[in-house]
């Protein structure tokens, strides 16, 4: 893209006298610079990620995407990948049987295409956020099999060539490494996983297909269960291409075994991605906790990028204003790189330094 605004902006900085550059560097050392459109695009999160050939993504909510320019300004300046926070979940796409609502999902895909952002698809087979017609439909195994196949064919097919990775399977393990009960698991057995991956691959052979989960970042019973399943699926020739490590952490809680654990999956030939990073703090957050959170963002980012086949890191939201954390984890918040007024937090610097190999 030789004529993209990003390239043009970079030239703005070139004629600056050395004194001015020095002043900028000094200012950057004290606070995170609030980037203006004139700022050097190479020093944004997406600038660093582009330079390394990886993705830096954000989960995007439809309401601010369509109504808040501060939100899209940061999204488009800092991120080269997006995930729909809710818009591609089954309850959003097919609220009543056979009647589809593609509006928000289509809007995000169009936005991404207009801003040179990749799209992660999230998610196809999950126990949660299912429409009530499906949850309460009392379907037989054979009916459910047909319903799941149709959902995958329709959804993956609609965005064929536009989604670089799909979370085909989401949250399918218990903490002890056994299979978690769900509509799919209970009625279809573990075989639904291989089937879902095969159907998704047929619908879009170019998309990387993932199993995604939380509390699998450490080497533990849950990640062992997933590791064994992944090995088995690969040995059966099932099109599994990657593992998504959600990475919903508590401040100070990035597991010490995270990098080694990601590496054992990458040693199977799989991509690894951090797919839903946020680091929550008990409110009100102290400056010491915000500093620790910054370190944690850097460590989590380096844990992925330090492993072969790390495809990138996605944060689960941009700003604390719209984070799911306060509504889900009582008393916690402040989990993201931007505060409610879109000021970059110390965690932004941590994430940026994690992406920048020279920081
Ligand atoms: C969350 C969204 O952020 C919320 O807005 C929604 O109410 C519930 O789901 N793991 C996942 C994500 O895979 O889809 C979840 O997203 C967070 C946990």
TrEMBL record:
For this chain's UniProt record, which GO biological process terms are given?
Answer: xylan catabolic process
Q: Where is the active site?
A: 276 (nucleophile)
Question: What InterPro entries does UniProt report for this protein, alphabetically?
Answer: GH, GH10, GH10_AS, GH10_dom, TAT_signal
Q: Where is the GH10 domain?
A: 38-354
MF term (GO), any: endo-1,4-beta-xylanase activity
Report the transmembrane regions from the record.
none
Species this chain originates from: Streptomyces montanus
Q: Which UniProt keywords apply?
A: Carbohydrate metabolism, Glycosidase, Hydrolase, Polysaccharide degradation, Signal, Xylan degradation
**Signal peptide interval:** 1-28
Q: Does the keyword Iron-sulfur apply?
A: no
Q: Its Enzyme Commission number?
A: 3.2.1.8
The protein here is known as Beta-xylanase
Report the catalytic activity: Endohydrolysis of (1->4)-beta-D-xylosidic linkages in xylans
Top enzyme class: hydrolase
Query: Does the record carry Signal as a key word?
Result: yes
Record Pfam families: Glyco_hydro_10
Question: What's this protein's family per the entry?
Answer: Belongs to the glycosyl hydrolase 10 (cellulase F) family.
